[in-house]
């Protein structure tokens, strides 16, 4: 596990990029053109959150919610701008959805 909050946030960015690459790979296997894949890869945040929610439910990480709270509390605000903040926010939204449905 990554010991520093900034390293954990970096792992969330990598996690998000893996989801995006998986989507690109799926459409490539379906025979979509490169142009169409680019259009589809820019999918809406709602779709990204839905996929993230599914992946998180498959992880079975009991400590994920507390780790996310700690990341928000311990990571400086300037480290949560751009893709880092976007990824953390999406994972938190997914976790909140899972918690509401539990």
Structural description of this entry:
This protein has 102 residues and is mainly alpha-helical. Helix content is 76%, strand content 0%. It starts with a helix and ends with a helix.
Radius of gyration: 15 Å
Uncertain residue segments: none
Question: Which overall shape is indicated by the principal axes computed on the Cα atoms?
Answer: globular
Structural class: mainly alpha
Biggest sheet features: none
Average predicted confidence as pLDDT: 83
Question: What's the helix and strand layout?
Answer:
Blueprint: H1 5-29, H2 34-41, H3 45-59, H4 64-74, H5 83-101
Helix pairs in contact: 1-2, 1-5, 3-5, 4-5
In brief:
Helices cover 76% and strands 0% of the residues.
